Fold these 3 entries.
Entry 1:
Amino acid sequence: MYFNDNVLQICDAQLAVWVDGQEIRSGTPARADRVEAEFLNEAGALHRAGGDLRQARACHQQALGLARQIGSAWDEAHALAGLGRCALAAGHTGQAADELRQALEIFQRIGAAEAARLSAELHALTDSRSAAHGS
């Protein structure tokens, strides 16, 4: 766990630098926002991997708001997928299925390669939910 804690601390520090704009001032504002959304999604994935679901959800939620604000469907789908994976890790399968389904619809609409992997995740989740309910 020591390694994960260090990685997350470094990630948080780097995120603070990026959010402050110190590393992305040379880009256009829209590009800077896009980089921030991507970074928030990656930070969320790292927090989820480290077991901090609260912080992971917070990162993905921030990324989702930013993606919607700048109109980035790809980042929106990644944020929704991250939120769905957090919900699944917390045992909230209904919420997970809903968020993963929203992400999948966006990935399919924009023709993203991520749609195939997410579709498989969603099918596995719905199959396991059906088995658990005896359907």
Entry 2:
Amino acid sequence: MNGPYDYIEVDNTNRVRISSPKDRGILNNTYKIIFKLITSSPIHVGSGRSKLKDSKIIMEFSRSKKTLVIPGASLKGAISTNYLVLSGSGNKTSELFGTTSESAYISKVFVDDLKILNKKLGLRIVGKAFPPRKKMRGVKYYPQGTITKSKYLLEVLKENTELFGKIIGYQLSELEVGGLIASLGVIFNNKRLEKWNFKMGYGKWYLLGGSKKTFGLVRLKQIAVYKLNVGFSNKYEKIDKLKWTKFVSKFYNMERENLYETVLDVAKRYFIKQEDIQNEQY
């Protein structure tokens, strides 16, 4: 471990050129994932703006026309990172989420802004981020129990705030659909699904008043998966849970390319169990 952060090895952290990407102009295998997330700890998605209150600088939460919002790009960034971590493959991640290289092609996945259902805004003190001292071939993350001492104020959505979201993807394989669901913190373990926490926005651990605190954790509360029936009804038809569970199972049975850990091993190290944080006091 490199100080307060660690790495999970992947074959490439950059989006890479795909030799034979799927045709983006054909509307086949289109899926819609509708879900509800709930914050397990205070979460901050920054606007890049700050304000002064009582001689203290407060980093503001993201807003659109004065309304609190979590941009779809923020969630997409989180799940694309999760997908890269779990799969270990820059190629697979680039094929699904696109690339901005010279041979750029668009993402197959489109993510709506998250709708905040019960707005619970507050202020929290968070720890300072630590830039890596050296580059590693992996994704940087802050393991459970990491403590940072430098602190400043953020506007946050409090715990138990519900967020409604939608993801639409086309030209998707069953494995990719399973990977998208897994990237929402879903673990396939002992032939059953478990909903673990993943990080979104600004999230660190730090010490305050002798107690360890957690920021930036969300978990899946509800999910429904649909597939577009092209050419017959042109309507989305709901997929049975047993069927899409098999997609997730297929993803977890996939080998991480040239890497020694299994997808399940990585998921258990990277995602965070609800039981590990539910007794914390905020």
Entry 3:
Amino acid sequence: MTPHLAHGGWAVTACILWLAGPITLLLVAGDIISDVPTQSMPMPFLIPSNTVHWWLQTHTPAYTTQAVALARAHRNSLTGVYMYAGVSVGANGSVTAPSDATLASKIHPLRALNLTVGVAVGVLQDAIVDGTATHAAPTLAAMAARNGLTSLMVDYEPSTDITSEHARRYAHFIETLAAALHERDVQLGMCVSSWGILTNFSLYAAT
């Protein structure tokens, strides 16, 4: 699973390391991994980019406190974060999200460190298939802009209905959401993989 950002163009990230605790995933999109000198890293980790984003877990206040402390302690090693904060798209395009006050408690301490901050968005498969997920685009865009987010990251990894039609419907959702976000100068990212409908890279790149 490798997320990549879309904001006019596409930027593909390098790798993900699985960790425990408040960091669920560590996403590396640059030429530095934590504080390890680049000369000690194997060549596959050296990629032409200068951004490093960490995935953080912020579902509880305790996790949020730990995540902010971790980001502050390693501020020189990263440029931004993605976080799981309980945002999702459900049936008929309904949006579930924490209150603005709760989101602010997670986002603002990280933005104060001059980091970019993106929030993961889960999506109900039925809403993608029946097309109603697109109804969520205006609500998600408004939420992102209102709360000072720099991006949303769609974490949609279906394991059933692996068809070209499913991929096209998902691409339509991505295209619709990207248009709504870009009007507010917010980036959109999506998780991709080597299996299922997430292998249709050219289809998603066209969005």
